[in-house]
Amino acid sequence: MEQIDNPGVKQELSSRQEGSTRQTILTLFKTKGQMNAGELAKKLQITEMAVRRHLSTLERDGYIRPTLVRQAVGRPTHKYGLTEQAEHLFPKNYHVLALDLLEELADDPETAVLVDRMFEGRKRKLLERYASRMEGKSLKEKVSELAAIQNDGGYMVKLEDGENGLVLHEYNCPIAQVANLYQQACQCELALFEQLLGTTVERTECLAKGGGKCSYLIAGAQ
Question: Are 79 and 69 in contact (CB under 8 A)?
């Protein structure tokens, strides 16, 4: 086997191996439930000290948490399990369920009207949730707060100055699969922005309509 002398390559290989081991540990927690360092060491066939190093990193990153478990014999032991944050690392198909449910409603003439009501209801809840964050702020401050809200939601927002006001760009749409089929999602987002900001907002580009991003021109915000 060819020996690797380049320190940078060695470090990269080591980082990949450590990342792979931590991924395996998370998968074990997902499939086996809580485990302690000794049990993990046996499963992975590495030293308990090495396991503890990986556990320390995963705990620091917020993916696992320890629980003190009392045993029938011997001292209590710390067992580790996944946090809610770690659950987002595993595949999810929420959009498939959402699309299936929306399709069921839309295909039945008696329930088709409920699709619009559902999106309106979602907009109303978001408005209630975020309206207090806009209180006492100038329009420009409100736009910055809106950008923070959307960033927290995974929309990858960037603000820039336009000729007639601030422009808010969204480079990612977490509900793209839904928005591509149901324009109500885009319409309600636009209405939500206008109500939160208290000014006219114009959508100039839309991901759901083939654009490279969603862009909103916010009147009077400069």
Answer: yes
Kindly state the tokens that stand for 89. Answer: 């690392």
**At a CB cut-off of 8 Å and minimum separation 6, what does 142 contact?**
134, 196, 197, 198, 221
Q: CB of 96 within 8 A of CB of 44?
A: no
- Which helix (H) or strand (E) segment is 84 a member of? helix 84-87
The first and second tokens of residue 82, run together, are: 């996944």
Among candidate residues 195, 189, 201, the one with its CA nearest the CA of residue 164: 201
Indicate the SS3 state at residue 154: coil
Task: Determine if the pTM surpasses 0.85.
Answer: no
Give Cβ neighbours of residue 117 (< 8 Å, ≥ 6 apart).
Answer: none
Nearest to 146 by CA among 93, 84, 214, 95: 214
134-170 pLDDT, tens digit each = 999 999 999 999 999 999 999 999 999 877 779 999 9
The arithmetic mean of pLDDT across residues 22-50, rounded, is 93
Assigned token pair, 139: 């329009």
Among 118, 135, 120, CA closest to 196: 135
Measure the CA–CA gap between 121 and 104, rounded to whole angstroms: 18
pLDDT digits (tens, 9 = 90+) for 55-95: 999 999 999 999 998 877 778 889 999 999 998 888 777 78
The radius of gyration computed from the CA coordinates of the chain, to the nearest angstrom, equals 24
